Amino acid sequence: MKRNAIMITLFLAIAITMGMIGSEPINAQQPPAKSTVLQRADIAGIEGKEGVVILAEIFPGAVAPKHYHPGYEFSYVLEGSMILEVESKPPATYTAGESYILPPKQVHYAKNVSMTASVKVLSFSIVDKGQPLAVPVK
Fold first, then answer.
1. Residues linked to residue 77 through DSSP beta bridges, in sequence order
2. How many CB atoms are located within 10 Å of the residue 54 CB?
3. Helix (H, G, I), strand (E, B), or coil: what is residue 14?
4. Distances (CA, A) of 94 to 18, 24, 120, 132
5. In Å, how far are 19, 87, 119, 122, 128 from 93, measured between CA atoms?
6. What is the pLDDT confidence band of residue 68, given thresholds at 50, 70 and 90?
7. Of 86, 72, 82, 69, nearest to 124 (Cα)?
8. Which of 75, 106, 110, 133 has its CA 20 to 30 A from that of 23?
9. Residue 8 in this model has a pLDDT that exceeds 50
10. How far, in Å, CA of 137 to CA of 108, rounded?
């Protein structure tokens, strides 16, 4: 009987340890959002400016960090629903099929309202060549 208790205790200790090791990738922090540059092109007739097309994805339940864009951003929500919080303005909800425009240097962040589906946003920005597409804000 004592041997069975020791074996059960040993088995449970190994199982708990394996469960903790196996759950590490699950507990690893996933970034809240991902941006993919789809296309870049110089804008004819406007020296030093370029147009950039971006596909942004905000993962389920995530909040994209506070930031601003150096140039204009024209955005269209492809999938999902999000809350856009622009500094000095009330929060606005955007769903698939809706669009918004942000002027240069307008500090904002977005929240995905769904815990199961990503939000996908297609954006077109006009920026100075060599400038970052987004600048983080604390």
1. 121
2. 20
3. helix
4. 43, 34, 11, 25
5. 39, 15, 12, 16, 29
6. very high
7. 72
8. 110
9. no
10. 9
Residues ≥6 apart with Cβ < 8 Å to 26:
none
Query: DSSP strand E in 14-48: where?
Result: 33-42
What is the pLDDT at residue 31? 84
Q: Residue 52: name the closest of 122, 99, 114, 137 by CA.
A: 122
E-state strands within 2-105:
33-42, 49-58, 67-68, 72-79, 81-86, 92-95, 99-102
| For the chain, percent of residues with pLDDT exceeding 70 | 79
Give the separation between CA 81 and CA 75, rounded to whole angstroms: 13
Of 133 and 19, the one with more pLDDT = 133
Compute the CA torsion angle 132, 107, 64, 61 (nearest 10 deg): -160
Q: What burial letters (b/e) apply to 78-94, b meaning 16+ CB within 10 Å? A: eebbbebbbeeeeeeeb
Alpha-carbon distances of 52 from 7, 35, 55, 91, 116, rounded to whole Å: 62, 12, 10, 26, 29
Q: Which residue has the tokens 């999000």?
A: 82
